[in-house]
């Protein structure tokens, strides 16, 4: 089974509050033990997601008091719960997963598998779904567990640090792109340009889209142009051409009317965040008429995750990251909140 005793360091949310008041506390505690059907992984890298910020600051209700945030985890399997023994004597859980393998831990951690939503392939909407770093401890730590059925295979050709943002920023951006229903060769507007947006934009570009980025951050606009965006401007400025689709990554409800107004007839706006400030009153004629529509994005399915990771293996994505040692996880969240991170922040041991 591997060694599961001894201790490890982990960051816990002591009490949700603004990150400037440092709600995270670094503790040393017993190393987690994998239950039946779970893997114990040594964390090699963990991305810092805006959802972690919402958990730490209380924008999302507390599901697990004192939770360890983090759901973009790249890890090495070091132990398995109640393993089966293969004829060769190696310990495995699931199909092709064993001690020494590198796996990904993402946001979706469990679903019932029985409800009508799960049965129709919409497990992301399962009423009993649970999430890493919210319902169960995540990757702001030296070790973490994951149900083997929810561990993800990782593509070759990327470092641990590059892989980490793919496990939420990349996956949810891919899901948002699907929800935006971008037509082939269409024009996509991207509002906000952080860890998720810069990956989704590259997927759209690889698929032949024309991408226009709207963000207040001058450094993010520079990155967008470097990656191949046709334009990059402030969100208050309309794109140079009407958009077929748009994705709102910034958790700013005041941008919804601007994005809807920028859509061409029949266009779709997908809202990618798990949290959004209030949306101002919409004008039907200006924002929704001519069959414009707005769609929310809720988590992702495992199929979404596997499809995106296969795509990343076939199309080398440029993953912009800023590294932080695990000891500075609280500072990484502060920098994320203040817009000081270029690309995606990633914690490393």
Describe it for me?
The chain has 349 residues and is α/β, with parallel strands linked by helices. It has 2 domains: 7-154 and 319-348, Alpha-Beta Complex (Quinone Oxidoreductase, Chain A, domain 1), CATH 3.90.180; 171-296, NAD(P)-binding Rossmann-like Domain (Rossmann fold), CATH 3.40.50. 25% of the residues lie in helices and 27% in strands. It contains 9 helices and 18 strands. Strands 3, 4, 7, 10, 17 and 18 form a 6-stranded mixed beta sheet that branches. A hairpin with a 5-residue loop joins strand 5 and strand 6. It is globular and about 60 Å long.
Task: Count up the helices.
Answer: 9
User: Structural class from helices and strands?
Assistant: alpha/beta
Beta-strand percentage range: 25-35%
| Rg | 20 Å
- Low-pLDDT segments, ≥5 res: 84-95
Q: Regarding CATH, which class of the largest domain?
A: Alpha Beta
Distance between the termini: 23 Å
How many DSSP-defined strands? 18
CATH architecture of the largest domain: Alpha-Beta Complex
Mean pLDDT: 93
CATH superfamily of the largest domain: Medium-chain alcohol dehydrogenases, catalytic domain
Reported by name, the CATH topology of the largest domain is Quinone Oxidoreductase, Chain A, domain 1
Shape: globular
Main sheet makeup: 6 strands, mixed
Count of domain modules: 2
Helix content: 25-40%
Q: Which sequence of SSEs, written as H and E, runs from N to C?
A: EEEHEEEEEHEEHEHEHEEHEHEHEHE
